[in-house]
Amino acid sequence: MVMAKPAKWLLVVGAVVLLTAGCASGGGGSGSGGDEESAGDTSATSPPDTPEFEGEPIRFVVATAVAGVVAQPEIFDAADAAVAAINADGGIEDPAGGPARPLEVVRCEAGAGGNEDPDAALNCARDTIDQDVVAVVGRYLFGADGTQAWADAGIPMIGSSPNEVEDFTNEFVYPITGGALAGAPGVGIALQQAGAETIALITGDVEAGRQLPGLITPALENEDDLVQETYVPLDPSADYTAQLAQLVSLNPDAVAVFGSSDINVRAISGLRDAGYTGLIAIPGTALTTDGLEALGDAAEGAILASSFDAPNGGQSEGIQQFNEEMDTYAPDAARTDLAINAWASVHLFADVLAEADAIDPASVVDALDGFEVDLDGLSPPFTMGVPNNQLDLPRIFTVTFQVQEISGGEVVPTGDGEFLDVNDFVTE
Question: Got the DSSP string for 13-53?
Answer without folding.
Answer: HHHHHIIIIIT--S--SS---S-TT-S-EEEEE--TTPPP-
